[in-house]
């Protein structure tokens, strides 16, 4: 699944901060702090980012 463009509940754009969020997490920054600094403050938006599973790499293994 590709990261949702907008939050499912409130409609805020969240896809533009996802890559930066992943970079910060890989640098051992706390997820809560990273999201706050990126402007993601609502619980629904945080849920959409936290629950996202990067499965596109697994799907790309199979040819149609």
TrEMBL record:
Coiled coil: none annotated. Binds 1 zinc ion. Its cofactor is Zn(2+). Its EC number is 2.7.7.6. The keyword Cytoplasm applies. GO terms for cellular component: cytoplasm; DNA-directed RNA polymerase complex. It is found in: Cytoplasm. GO terms for molecular function: DNA binding; DNA-directed RNA polymerase activity; zinc ion binding. Zn(2+) binds at residues 7, 10, 44-45. It catalyses: RNA(n) + a ribonucleoside 5'-triphosphate = RNA(n+1) + diphosphate. Belongs to the archaeal Rpo10/eukaryotic RPB10 RNA polymerase subunit family. Part of the RNA polymerase complex. DNA-dependent RNA polymerase (RNAP) catalyzes the transcription of DNA into RNA using the four ribonucleoside triphosphates as substrates. This is DNA-directed RNA polymerase subunit Rpo10. It comes from Candidatus Iainarchaeum sp.
